[in-house]
Amino acid sequence: MFNTPHAPRGALIAILAVIIASEVALQMADLGWIGSPRWRSLAYQYGAFWPGLLDSWAPNYAAQPVTMFVSYAFLHGGLGHLAGNALALWFLGQGVVTRIGQGGFLGVFALTALGGAVSFAALSAGNTPMVGASGALFGLIGIGVGWRFFDSTAAILRRARYALGSIALMVLLNILLNWWYNGHLAWQAHLGGFVTGLVLAKWLGARPRDFMAPQRELH
Questions:
Q1: What is the pLDDT of residue 11?
Q2: How confident is the model over 74-107, as pLDDT tens digits?
Q3: Residues forming beta bridges with residue 130, ordered by sequence position
Q4: Domains, the chain, ranges and CATH?
């Protein structure tokens, strides 16, 4: 999707460093190497997205009902969960950084994580907590699909076919992931992140296009 010439990637590396460091620390605590095995439950209590906090639950600190809309993206459910998201973030994030800069990338990451959380809160049933950066990752996919659609000079029907094909692939990917995780998939966050990315692609549509692969007809 992206052709990524060299560009400063400090913001992307910083987010990856925080995500990786937090899960590595929790893994070490789980094994009793540092801290306490309670660290993971405490991290989730204070940083995960809890739908109940938007209802009648009492927060652990005053700002938690607000900060959880982004903080959940920096926590993961284990090394496998982390590895998949970190690799995807590195691959997808480079094209976004190249196109809109490091500050723009940070904004996109935060807004798509926010969009994922809003969608999860609106569409999920129950009060199961959510962690993981996949809402933002699907947001990066959404902005990439949107840029490809808006940048293309192909006829509108061909662009629409490309967009619908991309959406179909996202649906299939979520079905497979839901099977892999035995039904414990926050597809609502994926949907919200993806839609937010599409909206941001239109809003940021006037940006230069040199990060993209050479423009061609969509088939």
A1: 94
A2: 999 999 999 999 999 999 999 999 999 999 999 9
A3: 49
A4: 10-203 (1.20.1540.10)
